[in-house]
Automatic annotation (TrEMBL):
Record protein name field: PHP domain-containing protein
Molecular function GO labels: 5'-3' DNA exonuclease activity; 5'-3' RNA exonuclease activity
SMART domains: POLIIIAc
Residues annotated as domain Polymerase/histidinol phosphatase N-terminal: 3-68
Signal peptide: none
Matches recorded under InterPro entries: PHP_dom, PHP_domain, Pol/His_phosphatase_N, Pol/histidinol_Pase-like
Length: 271
C-alpha cells in the first residue's frame, strides 16, 4: 500500500480541484491520501464525497501555519474518524477573511510600487484561501513573466510584503489538540534541527519523517527523534499539482508503517 498524508487543492494554494487530486492519486497508485489544505477545511466535504469512489481512500485534515522563533512552522492536523472539528471550521472562516484582506493590501501595494497588471477580484475568486503562491501565479499570468520572476513581488524582500496572520506554534498545537486532531510536524527537514528538537517537546503527536526534500540522513535522524520521544511517523508529498512541488505519491508510508497512525485516527482501509 501507498499512503500519502500531505496534499493540497485549489481550496488553498494548490492548482488541482478535489476531483483532480483524487484522480491523480488513483493514477499514481496511491491507496490512501490526506487532504491538508493550508488553514482551511472547506474542501473536506467535497473530498469526502469522493472517498472510496474508486479503491483510493481519503483522510481529512488541514495544515496549520504557525511561527516559532521567526521560523515558519507547519502542522499537519489529521481529523479522527474523518469528522471535521467545529473549532477548525471556525478557524478556517477567520483565516479566509484575514488572508483576503492581506492579499488585497499587498496587491494594491504591488500595483502602486511596481506598476504591475492584475485583477484583484479575479484573484479572490481563484481560491477560497489566498496565499502568496496564489498571488505569485496571478502576477505571472497577467504580466507575462515566469512564476520565479513573480515570486520576488510577494517575497519578504519586496517593498509590498505584508506578514500574514499567524499563530504561534504552541497556540497551533493547543488549538489542534483541543479539536481532537492528531498533530504532525510537517517537513521538519526545512527547519533547523535545534528548532525541531524543541517542537517535539511541545506536545505534537508525530513527525513527517519522509518528505521529497529530505537530504541524506534526514529520515533516519527524524525516525530516531520520533522513537526517542514516542512519536508517530508520517510521510507526505506536499503535492500542490504544479511543477514546483512533488507529485502525489512521491513520499509515502507502507501499510505496516501506517498502522500506528491509522489506529490513532480511527481509520481502516476496509471501512
Amino acid at each position: 500500500m501507498k499512503i500519502d498524508l500531505h496534499n493540497h487543492t485549489v481550496y488553498s494554494d494548490g492548482i488541482l480541484s478535489c476531483e483532480e487530486l483524487y484522480e491523480r492519486a488513483v493514477s499514481a497508485g496511491v491507496d490512501v491520501f490526506a487532504l491538508t489544505d493550508h488553514d482551511t477545511v472547506f474542501g473536506c466535504e467535497e473530498m469526502l464525497l469522493l472517498d472510496g469512489k474508486k479503491k483510493t481512500r481519503v483522510i481529512l485534515g488541514l495544515e496549520l501555519s504557525t511561527v516559532y522563533q521567526k521560523e515558519s512552522v507547519h502542522l499537519v492536523c489529521l481529523f479522527k474518524n474523518n469528522r471535521i472539528p467545529k473549532a477548525m471550521v471556525d478557524y478556517s472562516y477567520f483565516m479566509i477573511e484575514s488572508r483576503k484582506k492581506r492579499a488585497v493590501r499587498m496587491m494594491e501595494q504591488i500595483q502602486q510600487i511596481y506598476h504591475l497588471k492584475m485583477n484583484i477580484e479575479e484573484l479572490l475568486q481563484e481560491s477560497k484561501t489566498v496565499t502568496r503562491a496564489n498571488m505569485m501565479r496571478h502576477l505571472a499570468k497577467y504580466n507575462a513573466i515566469t512564476p520565479k520572476e513573480a515570486s520576488f513581488y510577494v517575497s519578504k524582500t519586496s517593498k509590498a510584503y505584508l506578514p500574514s496572520t499567524e499563530i504561534t506554534t504552541e497556540e497551533g498545537i493547543r488549538l489542534a489538540k483541543a479539536a481532537n486532531c492528531i498533530v504532525i510536524l510537517a517537513h521538519p527537514c526545512l527547519l533547523p534541527r535545534p528548532i525541531v528538537e524543541q517542537i517535539v517537546q511541545m506536545g505534537i503527536d508525530g513527525l513527517e519523517v519522509r518528505y521529497p526534500d529530505n537530504r541524506e540522513g534526514d529520515e533516519a535522524y527524524f525516525r530516531h527523534l520520533a522513537a526517542t520521544h514516542h512519536l508517530l511517523c508520517s510521510a507526505g508529498s506536499d503535492c500542490h499539482g504544479d511543477s514546483s512541488h512533488a507529485d502525489i505519491g512521491s513520499a509515502t508510508l507502507d501499510e505496516t508503517e501506517f498502522k500506528p497512525l491509522s489506529e490513532r485516527i480511527g481509520f481502516s482501509y476496509g471501512d
